């Protein structure tokens, strides 16, 4: 194949002699006419005379079963096959075929070590690309979260400031027949918006504590049926502000569960608060408790606006929000950490939480907790559980007032 004399032929052959890829040249009869040093190394041959002037079928096979391959029919572009080394060992290789004007074949076999290195590099590159994409997406979510969080904090601050301005103006009108009416109204505005800020800050602190592993569970034996019933009863007062009916059902009047009652309360209040916020007036919220020998299942189902299908997978992710025009008419979108906090608190109890929803058909959150008790721990009485309930409810339900028109 290198019969022509001249500088061009010499330069071409010199390049072939020094590249890492194996080069094998075959004439129209299938006889190997040339193999470069990399090809000799690949075939474990010491000299080209061990390879040249032999038929390619002695060294190039279709599979490990030593089936013959018709290179002239199958060799198009990139092809994988096996080569048989001088010592009889078979090696899988990838090759590229080039047909000359004289219908001779030039086979370029990529150096296996280089191919493996390329694969590793491509794999590392893909991982790095995915990592960078994830970082960018996280950064976008965080940026969106902080922008929204600023709005969430700014809104109650503006309302508090506005109420204070009204009180400042009204202080000169305290001699009016009903001076207490505007005073009490604006005090209530200040109070509710202070509670909203406390709720946001509490969630931020708890997320940080969860990340750093600083939340310690205060596990107690409690009557979970009684706890959920009390939570539902107290939440009903807030639901009535929108004429929403809350219904609680349970298949057991008394079921003892070993859990942290304050975290269970936070979980329930967050989900109920969302249900109230995103359910229209005259709607219904159903809370159901079912007990099995191994688990308890709590469902919170509402008749609200629902959740878009593309958000169901990510709704529990940190900084994730349901960015939908439907929500703009339902008290804003929230800070994007409430449901993530709920999920983490459920996981602290070795439980799972799932959501099922369709747009305009409501949402159903399902919590599954392992049914466990502690024989060494006394059952916590109701009055011990509910000591701080009023403050907790006022904080967790503070968003409800912002949605009442």
Order of helices and strands: HEEHEHEEEHHEHEEHEEHEEHHH
Radius of gyration: 37 Å
Quickly give the structural class: alpha+beta
Compute the number of helices: 11
Question: Can you characterise this structure?
Answer:
This protein is of the alpha+beta class and 405 residues long. The strands form 3 sheets. A 6-stranded antiparallel beta sheet has the order 2-1-6-5-4-3. Helices cover 43% and strands 19% of the residues. The model has no long low-confidence stretch (mean pLDDT 79).
How do the helices and strands line up, and which of them pair or pack?
Blueprint: H1 7-18, E1 22-26, E2 32-35, H2 37-42, E3 60-61, H3 71-74, E4 78-84, E5 90-99, E6 105-109, H4 112-170, H5 180-212, E7 220-223, H6 224-239, E8 245-250, E9 256-259, H7 261-277, E10 284-291, E11 295-302, H8 338-348, E12 352-357, E13 363-370, H9 382-385, H10 389-396, H11 398-402
Parallel strand pairs: 8-10
Antiparallel strand pairs: 1-2, 1-6, 3-4, 4-5, 5-6, 7-9, 10-11, 11-13, 12-13
Helix pairs in contact: 4-5, 5-8, 6-7, 7-8
